[in-house]
Amino acid sequence: MRRAAILVVDDEPGIRELLSQILADEGFSVTTVASGEEALAAVSREVFDLVMLDIKLPGMDGLEVLRQLKVGGKRLPVVMISGHATVEQAAQAVREGAADFLEKPLGLERVLVTVNNVLERAQLAERLQEEEEDVELTGVSPAIVELRRQILLAAPTDSRVLITGPNGSGKEVVARLLHRHSRRAAGPFVALNCAAIPAELIESELFGHTKGAFTGAVEAKRGKFELADGGTLLLDEVGDMSLLTQAKVLRVLQESRFTRLGGATEIRVDVRVIAATNKDLEAEIAAGRFRQDLYFRLNVIPIRVPSLAERREDIPLLVETFMAKLGKRMGVKPKKVTPEAMEALLAYPWPGNVRELRNLVERLLIMVPGDEVTPADLPMKLAETEVFWPGRPLPLKQAREAFEREYIARVLRACDQNMSQAARVLGLERSHLYRKVKALGIKVDGGTGES
Ligand SMILES: Nc1ncnc2c1ncn2[C@@H]1O[C@H](COP(=O)(O)OP(=O)(O)OP(=O)(O)O)[C@@H](O)[C@H]1O
Ligand SMILES: [Mg+2]
User: Fold this and answer.
1) Distance CA 250, CA 270 (A)
2) DSSP letter at 450?
3) 126 and 164, same domain (yes or no)
4) Are residues 313 and 300 both part of a single domain?
C-alpha cells in the first residue's frame, strides 16, 4: 500500500514538530499547517488520508474546521487534538463526526495506536462502500426495467427464488438486491459457490462440523446455513451439487433444521434460500443429474437474467459507468470511446456478458495511453464488425453457406473457441453446432470444446 498522507493542523510549532517526527518515523507522509484556513486550503489542493486537528486555533477554531471538512459528506477522517481545557469540545467533535481525539501531552504510543486504528477503520469503510457500489443493476433497456420490477416484487415475499442466466450476466447482483430489499436486509447475506467446493467438503461448508468430525477438522466450525441465520443464503451454481448433497439440502429446506457433521444436536435456522445457476436445470433433471423435488423447492419464484446481447442498448451506459467507477478506484481518468469503437462494442456478441465488458473496460483503462479509445485499441476479436460480403455474387444457397461459415467462425473466436459457449450464443444445441462446424469445414483451434 502507498504511504498514508497525514495533515497536521496546530498553531504550536512544538506540537507540529513532535507529530511530524513521530509520524514520519512511522513511514507516513506528513504535511503541517498552523491554522484552520491553511488546513482547508491544503485539503482542497491535495489528497490526505487523515487530518490531525487542534481544537484551539487562532481564527477559525477546530470545531468549525471539522464542520467545513464534513460538508459534502467527505469521508476524510479527522482526529482532534485537545488540551486539558478543551476535552468537552473534543467529545462534541466526535459527536459531530471526528473519528477520535487525543489529549495533550501527546505520547508516542497513543498517537500511533490512534492513527493506525483510524486509518484501518477508514480503509474498511471504503472497502465496504466499494462492495456496496458493486451491487448495482445498471441499465435502461426494457429487459433490465422488467428485471428490476421482478426483483422489487419478489424481494419482500420471503419466498425462495431461482435465478437463472448466462455467465457474468449479473445473477449475484440480483441475489444481493433481493436481500437488500427484503425484510432481512439487516441480517447477513451469505453466498456459497457450490461449483468451487469439492463434493466431499460441501456438506461441512453448508452444515458445519464438530471438532474431530473428520481428519482435518481440528476445530468446530459453523456452516453457511448457521451463518446466514436471520438473513439470506445464496446457493450459487446450484446445478453443480452432487446428488447426495442435493438430498441433504432438500431435507433442510423441508424441515429448516439440520445437524453439524459429527454432531448430534439439531440446529434450527431461519434462512431464506436463493439459488442461482447458469445451467438449464430442467435439462439436468432429464439427464438424471438434478433432483426434481429439489428443483420444485427452489424454483418458487423464477427470475431470468438476460444476456448482454439481449439488451445491447445498455452497452454505452455500462461502458460509461465502468469507466467512471473503475477509473476512480484505480486513480485513472475515464476515457472516451469514439463512435467507431462504440459501434464495435455494440456489434460484439459478448459471450461473457457484463463481466466481460467490465474486464474489457478495466483493461482499456490500464492499456490505452491517451484519453480516447479507438477501434485500434480494441482486442482483435472485437474489431470484426464489418458485415460479411463474399466478394462476388453467388447463388443464395452458397452465399448463405459462406455467411454461416464466416459468422460461426467469428462467434467461435469471440468465445475463445469454446464450443458450448458458442452454441449458447448461436442458440444451437452443442451437437448441432459440431455438425455445422464439420459440414462447413470450420477450423476450431486451441479450444477444448468444454465449458
Ligand atoms: N446490470 C449490471 N450493472 C452493473 N454491473 C453489473 C450488472 N450486471 C452484472 N454486473 C457486474 O458484472 C460482474 C458479474 O456479475 P455477477 O457476478 O453478478 O454475474 P453472475 O451471473 O453471477 O456470473 P457467473 O455466472 O459467472 O457466476 C460483477 O462485477 C457485477 O458487479
Ligand atoms: Mg455468480
Assistant:
1) 15
2) -
3) no
4) no
Rounded to an integer, what distance in angstroms lies between the CA atom of residue 374 and that of residue 44? Answer: 34
Q: What is the pLDDT of residue 130?
A: 62
Residue type, 347: A
Number of domains forming the structure of the chain: 4
> How far away, in angstroms, is 178 Cα from ligand 2 center?
14
Give the DSSP H or E segment for 251.
Answer: helix 243-255
What's the CA gap between 168 and 354, in Å, rounded? 6
At residue 335, the pLDDT reads: 96
Domain membership flag for residue 297 = yes
Residue 254 lies inside a defined structural domain of this protein? yes
* Cell numbers placing 2: 502507498
The band of 74, judged by pLDDT with boundaries at 50, 70 and 90, is low
Last residue of a domain, one of 304, 335, 353: 304
CA of 354 to the centre of ligand 2 (A): 11
Q: What angle do CA 228, 231, 237 make, to 5 degrees?
A: 65
Residue 236, SS3 per DSSP? strand
Give tens-digit pLDDT for 4-40: 899 999 999 999 999 999 999 999 999 999 999 999 9
- The CA–CA distances, whole Å, from 385 to 222, 346, 380 equal 52, 9, 10
Contacts of 22 (CB under 8 A, 6+ apart): 106, 108, 111, 112
Asked which of 381, 408, 426 is the last residue of a domain, the reply is 381
Which residues, in sequence order, are CB contacts of 177 under 8 Å at separation 6+?
135, 137, 151, 155
Which mutation among 355, 420, 421, 451 tests ligand 1's pocket best, with the greatest number of atoms within 8 A of CB? 355
Task: Give residue 382's identity as a one-letter amino acid code.
Answer: L
Residue 205 shares a structural domain with residue 68: no
SS3 content of the chain, % helix, strand, coil (to 5): 50, 15, 35
Say how many Å lie between the CA of residue 411 and the centre of ligand 1: 22
Percentage of the chain with pLDDT > 70? Answer: 96
Identify which ligand lies nearest to the alpha carbon of 305: 1
The dihedral over CA atoms of 214, 218, 224, 227, expressed in degrees to the nearest 10, equals 150
For the stretch 133-160, pLDDT in tens is 668 899 999 999 999 999 999 999 999 9
- Give the closest residue (by CA) to ligand 1 atom 25: 167
Q: Answer left, alpha or beta for residue 72, where phi above 0 means left and psi between -120 and 50 means alpha.
A: left
Number of Cβ atoms within 10 Å of the Cβ of 58: 10
Q: Are residues 373 and 275 in the same domain?
A: no
Contacts of 437 (CB under 8 A, 6+ apart): 408, 412, 419, 444
